[in-house]
Fold each of these.
Amino acid sequence: MVNQFSRTELIFGKDGMERLFKAKVAVFGIGGVGGYAVEALARSGIGRLDLFDDDKVCLTNINRQIHATRKTVGKYKVDVAMERILDINPDTEVHAHKLFYTPETSSTVDLSEYDYVIDAIDTMSGKLELVMKAEEAGVPIICSMGAGNKVDPTAFEVADIYKTSVCPLAKIMRYELRRRGIKKLKVVYSKEAPIALKEDMMSSCKTGCICPPGTARKCTHRRSIPGSNAFVPSVVGLIIAGEVIKDLVSVFHSTDNSVS
């Protein structure tokens, strides 16, 4: 019977679609990367999505975040994303968690109930904590490395963290994870060197913050605010979603292209 996932079923089959429908995926960070990952997961038939982010949509998010529009500015990202997911597939079980994931808040989340975890958050402490908790729970996790200050979406690739190079964030992660005894971690990263920013103080968040009222963590809390665009974070998010989907249905692209 033809349905909204019929074209996907042609690739993964009925058994594969059943696995996706039964899967529970947690996505931490519903921004430029996480938003597109969520979009692809919802359009692939994932049965349950848990969204973690305490940010509200800001006007400056519109250039790269799929749920950010003039109508959604000021609304919580997880609420907007949940509404969008249910418009795509009303059968999805969606949970919106207004939570900033840190070592201090991690105890409120039980990762063992998920089949896969996506890390699309932008703080080192949060990333490390999430990786450690996923390791403890025995749950597969995939992490986004630096997507800011990049302009070449074709430079991103999937690799183990210990096989990465160039990316400054990946370098720090390698060091910290080695200290913690983590032997492997699937990441999406780029070998493109970060570009030098052309900062205009008239458009700088540091001097003219326009975060919605009530925003707990304004972008000005960052030491440096990265530049971004519509075509890099989206690609990273879609790559991540693709890896999750393939892992969940155990379909991998072989070196001889027997699966495509």
Amino acid sequence: MKLQTILKRLQKLHPKEIDLSLNRIQNLCKKLGNPQDHLKCISIVGTNGKYSTIQAIRAILKEANINCNIYTSPHIQKINERFVYNDEEISDENLVKLLVEVEEINAGEPITYFEILTAAYFYHAKNFSNNINLIESGLFYRFDATNIVKENLASVVTAIGLDHLDWLPESERTVEKIVFEKTSSLLNSNIIVAKQSSKETLDIIKKTISANKSDKTIFNEEFSYSINENGFIYYEDKLGGLILPKPNLPGDFQVDNVATAIATLRKLDLKIEDEHIKTGITKIKSIGRFQEIKNGKIKDLCKKNKIFVDGSHNPLGAKVLNEYLESLNCDKHIILGMMANKDHNEYMSYFKNVSSLTTIDIPNQPNAIKGKALKEKLNEFPNTQFKESIQDAIKAISSSENDIILITGSLYLAGEVLNLN
């Protein structure tokens, strides 16, 4: 309860949830002794795949006995997920101590919730100065609170697509603008560019970072992979080839993120051996990203079906998710909840051959679109219905044995599902 009280106080320090500028966090970090200047960081920017790439890097580093700290957002089930030190989530007690100290040093100055959490992460990370910090950027990167690090080991650019368009002027809601916001201010070190959804997007990225003096490692130019018909992966870069087992993440699209993680770590001189990579990618932790629910209260409602929860919420995420669903020989049923500021029709347009769609409200999210309104927007989709709760939605699906139920549309919804389960 004390932690929740502190978090509510921090949310009131600025009238806006997001205010894209760097002066407030720079001022606070200066009071904190600029802890971000003394860390070894890998920055991860992009639209999709950031979390999975981070978790793949984390798993490989753990096999190599290299300690890491991790800062991600948003969290799925609890805020402690955002603060990982020595590969462990911070305890409630230590998080309370950390936030209270940073709050006192801030002394009531206006600062957004994300900014003060970011400053707090950096402040505590200084106690683990030898660790590698995996830092996920937030909304964009150019004016994101994480973009105050002066130097890093590498910048990773995951798949970029259209998202968070409501934060851009209508005339600038383009891939070009998003690429510019995410990549134009990357530091001069190493840049690793993941597989992109189109050659056009990749060309825009390459043009935007062309003046950056970093050593650049680009998918299909400096590294690549192929999936063998027997399930093995052949990964290749300038250091040579690796025959790898499939990672423990469902969906071939996740191999894009794993390959990017491997390319990043092989680019850095960290004494990581091939066996660390081979074993690490079979032990990746992933929450709310095409995660199968194998037991619990939600699973008990549909024992004859596989049920997955996935936090994808933009067209690019829907596209890769559907490509995987299309490879499965069974009927698929979608339960959908989304935030109001997303492109609901565009998101659902990527799902083909789905047997039913059930819309729901996202619990505890006032900025979510109501399930009834979402149903009305998607009425052209076959077999569409609205149910008030996640449980009612699962019960209402007319499914056969071995059908798949997918709950998707929002990371916030994914968190609610996992907490209910």
Amino acid sequence: MSDLSIGGGVRLPEPSRGDRATQVGSTHHFTGGIVHNFGPGGTGPGGNGPGTRMGIESNLEGNANLMLAARSEVQDLVEQVRFDWFDEDGEVHKHYIDLVATERDGTVVGYAVRPLARVKDAYLAQLARVKEQAIEQGVLDDFRLFTDRDVCQVELFNAKLFHSVRRPDCFGDPVAKDVVDKMTGVVTIGSLVEQTRLDGMGFRALVRLIRSGHLEMVGYERIDHSSLVFKAKEVSA
């Protein structure tokens, strides 16, 4: 682990664990970076660590990154993972898998992220070959194509919300946990916010409890004050 810190004792995010450095600027497409609490810099979603940086090279890749990171079954996520594959003539080629997610049951799934308009037959044939060899070698358990058709706006909205409130709040979180611990039945998030008397701070703390699985949504919808929730497990669990 690197020792990147600022004078006040605040640690900077750990470097990317990808096998290829992503572009930091381009005149042709979106580039950027995102920090998750996966890897050596954190203890999983909601952790207190400084996080680990991940590079992204398209808006679609950023959306896929956020959506996968927010899924409860995903416990680790790495970008740009190198895999060497060979073609029908035996020539070896490098392929960088855009995202590799490790799920809680140990399943490892790779994702090739590309707009559907740019998915051609030759590309699909190459992915099929990479998938076959990666699974055969035990590098992946599955390899999937992620396109713009896989972006559910509800899931993306909630993923962005989860990411924006991921940092724990030493004041708001205990209050929200106490309110949820005493709740019964199905209630709106707004009513729980009122019980916390913390307005936005209370809402953010309750969203973290949805993210951690302590609260569960009744319907599949964007999370807001009118959303109905119930206690899925004890807060102390």
